[in-house]
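Morning!

As promised:
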Amino acid sequence: MTQLRPEEGPPGPGRRLTAEFYERDAVTVARALVGAWLEVDGAGGIIVETEAYAPDDAASHSYGGVTPRNSAMFGPAGHAYVYRSYGLHWCFNVVTEPGSAVLVRALMPLVGIEAMYARRGVEDERKLCSGPGRLTQALAIDGGHDRRPLDQPPFLLAEGLSAPSVVSGPRVGITRDVDRTWRFGLRGTRFVSRAFR
DNA sequence: GCCTCGATTTTCT
DNA sequence: GAAAATCGAGGCC
C-alpha cells in the first residue's frame, strides 16, 4: 500500500518531465503519470488518476480526424489539450503521440490548497480535485491553456512518487470501446473520483 | 447512501 | 435533434 499521509508524501516536485517522457503511446504515459507532480501557478500535488485516449479508439475525441476542438491532440507532445465537457466543465489532457492524449482526472492536493478551496467553494478536501472538472476548477485551468506547453510556466510537470503502486480499470463516462481498461489510479488513495475494483 | 435531473458546448446524424 | 471523457443539488431510503 502506497503511503499517502501528507507528512510522508513528497515535499515537492522532482525532475521536470521532458519531451522523451511525452513522446510515447497514451497508455504508457497515462500509467507513468500516476504519482507524478502537477502544479499550475503554485497550486497542485500528486496525480492520482488518469485515462488514456488513442487515435484508433472510438471513445477518443481524435477518432475521426481533426476538428477545431481537438486540434491540440494532433499537435506536439508535451502540450495541453483542454476542452469543455457537457457544456460546463473544463477537462485537462496531456498530449502524447499524434492523436493521443491522457485525461488527468484527479489529484492529491499538496500545495496552494487555500487557493483551491477558494476557487472550488467547498469545504471537503476530497472534493477539491477528485474529478476532471473539479481539478481544472481548483487549478484555474480553462480554454486559455489549450495547446500551451507543459514544460513552461504556469505549468510544472515533474517526477513525484518514486515507485507508485498503480491499479487500472475501465474508463468513466464513455459508451464506445468500453472494454479497454485504460483508466489508471494510485492504489489506496481516497482522492480518486471513484473507487477502483 | 442511491437515483434523477438540469446546465450548456461541440460534434455528428 | 441527440449525445457526450461532468458536477452538484434535491428527493428518497
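The first strand of chain A starts at residue 37 and ends at 40.

Hope this helps with the figure draft.
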